[in-house]
Amino acid sequence: KLNGVHKKTGGKIIRKRDNKKLIKEIQQVIKSENKIDNIFFFDDDFFIRTEKELGEFSKEYKKKVGIPFFIFVNPNSTTNKKIDLCYKAGLVKAEYGLQTTSDSVLKKYNRLPGSKRLIEIINYVNKKKYKMAVAFDIITNSPFETDKDILKNINFILNLKGDFILYVHNLHL
Questions:
Q1: pLDDT for 63-78, tens place per residue?
Q2: Are the C-beta atoms of residues 93 and 132 closer than 8 Å to each other?
């Protein structure tokens, strides 16, 4: 509903749930289901929350839910403190929609560059020896990318150090 309103008014679409309501709903689902091993938050960017909000969420989530969880996030909203807070609460996988390393193509996707920050994130998670997966998406078969852009993406991936998961998707217009 809100996305429809925002589209009509030209407003920015941001999906973010209230911590207390979110945890209460998760608790209700856990009570009604036989066994839940993981929670996957399908927010556009879970780290759009402030460090204060994530601190409150993490404390309550660990105390009241305590189940490992996955999130979708953006490299540019990620801070080391946000990773730390969520990891302590049970974060086991953070997935980043990188799409490409080409600044010109990212402009067409209405995205900010994030590849440098993603390198820092992978290095940080590996340095801390966190047992969590860092995953990211790359889009292929884009009519907007040149051969040079494609090679830049490949070299970026080949030069990453440490553990990560790569998801490759074809562009569908």
A1: 999 999 999 999 999 9
A2: yes
Cα 73 to the center of its chain, rounded Å: 2
Cβ(62)–Cβ(96) below 8 Å: no
Closest CA to 26 of 2, 62, 74: 62
| CA distances to 117, 134, 143, 151 from 73, in Å | 12, 10, 26, 25
0.70 cut: is pTM over it? yes
Q: Is the pLDDT of residue 3 over 80?
A: no
Looking at this protein, which amino acid is placed at residue 101?
T
pLDDT at res. 172: 85
Report d(CA 5, CA 68) in Å as an integer: 34
Pair of tokens at residue 170:
């074809």
**DSSP summary character for residue 95:** E
With a cut of 80, say whether residue 18 has pLDDT above it.
yes
Tokens read off for 122: 């992978």
- For residue 15, is pLDDT > 90? no
